[in-house]
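pinned: reference chain
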Amino acid sequence: MIYHVLRKLLDRVEGTLSENQTIDRLAESLAVSPVHLRRLFKTSFETPLIGYVRSRRLSASLERLLNSNLKIDDIAAMYGFEHVQSYIRAFKREFGLTPGEARKTGLILKVTPPIQLFPSNKLADGVMFGPEIVHIPEIYCVGKPHVMPNDKKAEVPARAGREFWLNDKNKIPNIKRPDA
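pinned: its structure tokens
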């Protein structure tokens, strides 16, 4: 059930990037409380839901900003910002420069990609983990090499992490816990 709620939530966030989406409206559309939705997202992805939504809206707005001659006011309105100053402040917090500076300089900006859920992210006891997608030819999970075929790169780390969690984590001697 958690997986399905998160899947629907991520789809709704991506489908409403041009709206001023609120947590209350998202929660209502998923038939859960706003508090529960925020807690579930934070626990699953270690980032606040409202921050993720804002980052995705700003990341999506970059396409129009850099590849069109639209006014910044119009772009802000297209992505659900009621006031251009709110958009400019949020943009500067996210990327370290204003939209105008980004347009003029053409600097490379690190954007927040959409969170991807794969069936291999889901464990039977409800534990979820969301992979960071990084393009690398192979990974090591507890010293075991995992070659990543080009067509399924994002699924291999998730599967390797799941296999480690289920089969190998208890085999590590003298494990150091960060909370200990």
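why pinned: The chain has eight helices and two strands. Confidence is low (pLDDT under 50) at residues 131-139.
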